[in-house]
Amino acid sequence: MTNHDATSWLQSKSLPYIGLGIGILALGMSAIFVRWADAPGPVTGFYRLFLSTIFLTPFFIRRSSHNKSSLNKKTIIFPFLGGILLALDLAFWSTSVFYTSAANSTLLGNTAPLWVSLGAWLIFREKLTGNFWFGLALAMAGAVLIVGSDFFIHPRLGIGDLMAAAAGVFYGGYYLATQRGRQHFDSISYVWLMGVIASVSLALINLGLGHSLGGYSKETWLVFGATALVSQIIGYISISFAMGHLPASVVAPTMVGQPIMTTILAIPLLGEIPRPIQLLGGAIALTGIFLVNRAYHQKSDKPDHRTD
Q: Which residue spans traverse the membrane (predicted)?
């Protein structure tokens, strides 16, 4: 093997893992950006989606000729539903960041794999293995330790944990809608359509809550731009790149690293030191989520119906 061949082989093997690591780091910053922004959480969530959707618009237009055959009343329901569910997820999750720790909100907001698997079982009648149910039991036990410890110490923190858990349910619904929607649209087209619906939904949510979308400081606008660029664009593109070269059975369980990354980053950036009971509950929940991911994706790891 020549030096050139060896370098090409190394890059082909290492780049997907580098992309996965970058994606986890970028997504792990999400809660940090929400805290840094001097604005309500749903407002930060709105600009995260709105600005990233504007960035993707030229790429969506380039694919417009391919979208005409896919865009109809039967298929538009999936990005429409996905956008609404994502808006609800971001509204609940970004608000929870102000009522509980960044680590807790990220961990409980990332319980989506549990709800995806349960939804697939209830709605699509997919069979689940014993490993899944064991993982689910562990994840729920860990979540109880986290939520329970906060709720009894300070009810306000417990409410934040519950809001983050609710966000995880909505995020799971988003995944289920996306699973079907991606059978009809390529990834950029689906993300753009979903982003438009989610942006409109979040704008209406902010209007209903009485949150202004303007009048913020220059520093806050920089945070809005950073969360759109880092958390949404770099984060999701990096994960999508990794998923194009690595099996879902590798990528999905590795995503449990996101709340771990947030916990680590929150120590120097937010000064949040997790309590021992939270560390124990988090470790148990992460183990359960890992087992759920592995059990589900070993069973249903299939190639995408669309090409990107």
A: 15-34, 46-64, 76-95, 131-153, 159-177, 189-209, 221-243, 250-271, 277-296
